[in-house]
Design goal:
By secondary structure, this protein is an alpha+beta fold. It folds into five domains: 3-87, Zinc finger, CHC2-typedomain (DNA Primase, Chain A), CATH 3.90.580.10; 98-233, Alpha-Beta Complex (DNA primase DNAg catalytic core, N-terminal domain), CATH 3.90.980; 246-368, Dna Topoisomerase Vi A Subunit, Chain: A, domain 2 (3-Layer(aba) Sandwich); 380-443; 461-598. The chain has 29 helices and 16 strands. The model is unreliable at 436-455 (pLDDT under 50). The protein binds zinc ion (ZN). Zinc ion binds at residues 34, 36-37, 44, 55, 57-58, 60.
Length: 608
């Protein structure tokens, strides 16, 4: 057995997935909310026997390596190492190749760079300016260590020299890691110069890029610059602080979303640790997926300006399709903040000047709908007809999408009272928006080619075939052989069924106890996926008691036979029609017609 196989066999897919998403037992399988598409009721199945997963909503399926690649973004060699460690197997030399090798080299370079910048900031003489700056901003030693802050010197090629001369990487390697800028005559420069450095880690804790803040505020350069998009760094999927504060977030089942790195660091220094920063104001779908892995409640702590309101509206839309609850920390309307003279300040400043107040604010969140209502009442005049119309225009599209009827009614009443309009009139306006034509929401719900969410309508024959295959695969060993033979005669149309049945026949004839997991692993991967589909079909999992398998089998086989014979009859009839339509018939044609007629008689007898 190869090492890869040994590692696979020592691995429990249910355990690996169960550590990441909540799975419940469902018959012989496990079931949970799909991590690959947004859903509120679970259609994601994991089979222990077959060591495969499948989502009946979006069609995602695969084995442990495919899961780790898709969920964790791991390369094959990374998951192999991880699983070998877990199983206590010592991995013989396994060198990654191609893209995997490039990726691992970039990770190595980025981590060395983090170490180098951190050293400059904390130990080197030249780091004094950086240390003074952080001190003045109230950043503690603990934070510097936890977030591995660093310093890029104001030089053109200090990092390049370190990585190419002391460490023997090439300029091309550095370029792939996003650390250099190519100038004229193909000369490379350090991308980050004279900046305080924040390492950006992905959800697995790997450094994938950097954000650099200018130390000298007078310079004519951008205050913040980030790594460019690389194979490793994708801005839209990164949450600053996520990996460092993962356990704090998970413990509280709640996460506060902030804008910048300093907001986040100051918040943790005020002992509010369930935070991430999105480096901007727009929360993306990828970021929401990551948040959904660790928390049920998302609290937005964004600026209360126009951009913050837009971001909140967008977040409501994105979160609507998930089980997450969205709330907002409303800086604009906090009397305590006003009393403390901190109105209009960002979380960084509030947390630094008044940590106790920041802790209080973090506990005083309002629902996202409440926040939008308050913001609208402030921007438009609820006394004038024009103002009332503007408020309704802004809120109706959002409120019309509240799925819970009681909750929707609650906000509708609130809105009606606030603008002094009869509730039934406001309700009328809401209905207008209930099915918006080209809204982003309805667009998102259109099934994509690769991501079909609508269940495909099956013909009766397809459904019966799938049911028969389901029952057969759940049969105990003595009946299996008999049932395989019966199905082979029926020439099923299901993709792959003939090949699988033939292989099963050999297996069943061997008269050993049948092991579905081993059997499935002997098949090509497309057939494995088919067998999993038949075995774990959620259509049947909940209606068939294990004790009723035989009874069900006896009920459906005659039906399936009938459909099969009818299908055969139709085929023969088509052939006959074709022969009948010939202008002149050869003796061979006549012979053929006779043979077909005989077949029809036989089939009709069988059908009786
Ligand atoms: Zn799915």
């Amino acid at each position: 057995m190869s090492q890869i196989q040994a590692i696979k066999q020592a691995t429990s897919l249910v355990e690996i997935i169960g550590e990441r998403i909540k799975l419940d037992r469902s018959g012989v399988n496990f079931r949970g909310l799909c991590p690959f598409h947004s859903e509120k009721s679970p259609s994601f199945f994991v089979s222990e026997a077959m060591q495969r997963y499948r989502c009946f909503g979006c069609g995602a399926s695969g084995d442990v390596f495919e899961f780790l690649e898709r969920y964790e973004g791991m390369t094959f060699s990374e998951s192999l190492k991880m699983l070998a460690d877990k199983a206590g197997i010592i991995l013989e030399s396994f060198a990654p190749t191609g893209d995997d090798a490039i990726r691992e080299k970039s990770l190595e370079i980025l981590d060395l760079t983090r170490e180098y910048y951190h050293y400059l900031l904390t130990k080197h003489r030249a780091g004094e300016a950086g240390r003074a700056y952080l001190k003045q901003r109230g950043v503690t030693q603990e934070s510097i260590k936890l977030f591995q802050l660093g310093l890029a010197l104001p030089s053109w090629d200090e990092l390049i020299k370190y990585l190419t001369q002391k460490k023997s990487y090439t300029i091309a390697d550095l370029d792939r890691a996003g650390l250099v800028v190519m100038g004229q005559q193909n000369r490379a420069y350090d991308r980050f110069r004279g900046r305080l450095m924040f390492p950006l880690r992905n959800h697995r804790g790997q450094v994938v890029g950097f954000s650099g803040r200018l130390l000298n505020a007078n310079a004519k350069e951008a205050k913040y610059i980030n790594s460019p998009e690389t194979g490793l760094y994708h801005k839209s999927e990164l949450l600053y602080g996520y990996s460092e504060l993962f356990h704090e977030i998970k413990k509280l089942n709640q996460v506060i979303v902030m804008e910048g790195e300093f907001d986040l660091i100051s918040s943790t220094q005020a002992h509010v640790n369930q935070v991430v920063a999105i480096k901007g104001s727009a929360l993306t779908e990828g970021q929401i997926k990551l948040l959904g892995r660790v928390a049920n409640q998302v609290l937005l702590a964004l600026d209360a300006d126009g951009a913050g309101i837009k971001a909140t509206q967008r977040a409501i839309e994105l979160i609507a399709a998930t089980p997450l609850e969205l709330r907002v920390i409303d800086f604009g309307h906090s009397p305590e903040l006003l009393a403390a003279g901190l109105s209009g300040k960002d979380p960084d400043e509030i947390a630094r000047t008044n940590p106790k107040l920041w802790r209080t604010l973090a506990e005083q969140s309002v629902s996202a709908y409440e926040f939008l209502l308050r913001a609208a009442l402030e921007r438009f005049n609820p006394q004038t007809p024009d103002g009332k119309k503007q408020i309704i225009d802004e809120l109706a599209p959002v409120f019309s999408r509240i799925t819970h009827a009681v909750e929707q009614d609650f906000y509708l009443q609130k809105l009606a009272t606030a603008i002094n309009v009869r509730a039934d009139l406001v309700a009328k306006d809401l209905i207008k928006f209930a099915q918006p034509k080209n809204s982003p929401q309805s667009l998102r719900q259109m099934p994509k080619k690769s991501d079909a969410v609508e269940p495909i309508a099956l013909t009766k024959k397809q459904q019966l075939e799938q049911y028969a295959l389901y029952l057969m695969l759940h049969s105990s060993t003595p009946e299996l052989l008999e049932r395989v033979t019966e199905l082979m005669e029926l020439k099923l149309l299901e993709f792959g069924s003939q090949t699988v049945l033939e292989k099963l026949l050999i297996e069943a004839n061997a008269k050993k106890a049948f092991d579905l997991g081993k059997f499935s692993q002997s098949l090509a991967s497309d057939l494995q996926a088919q067998v999993f589909l038949w075995f774990s079909n959620p259509l049947f999992d909940e209606i068939v008691e294990p004790s009723a398998i035989t009874e069900e089998w006896q009920k459906i086989i005659p039906e399936l036979k009938k459909l099969h014979f009818q299908h055969e009859l139709q085929k023969i009839q088509t052939q006959l029609n074709r022969l009948d339509g010939l202008q002149t018939k050869t003796p061979a044609n006549d012979q053929e017609i006779g043979r077909l007629l005989q077949q029809i008689v036989t089939l009709q007898q069988k059908l009786r």
